[in-house]
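Question: I have long wanted to understand how a fold can be written as tokens. Here is the record:
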Amino acid sequence: MTNRHQSLIDSFEKKLRKLLQLHADERAKNQQLTEQLQQKEEDLMQAHKVILELRSDYENLKLAQTFTGGSETERELAHKRISQLVREIDKCIDLLNQ
């Protein structure tokens, strides 16, 4: 009986070591995936910033083009856009003064 018990204990220890190794491997893989996710999120945020900057540049370019040679309706739209921007600036100034 002692030999059988020792065999069971040895088998249990072997399986436990294997389980612990699998757990360590999965923790390492999880850490790696977490780091990759964080990097991808940072890349996404950077790309989003670039998109916002490009949209702003595009809007500014469109506005500049309307002043340099656009039609009457384009100039009216540009004036409306400038008026809207001035109102937004005034709102921001009011919020800062509060």
Notes: The first helix runs from residue 2 to 69. Residues 78 and 84 are 10 Å apart (CA to CA). Residues 2-97 form one domain. The radius of gyration is 32 Å.
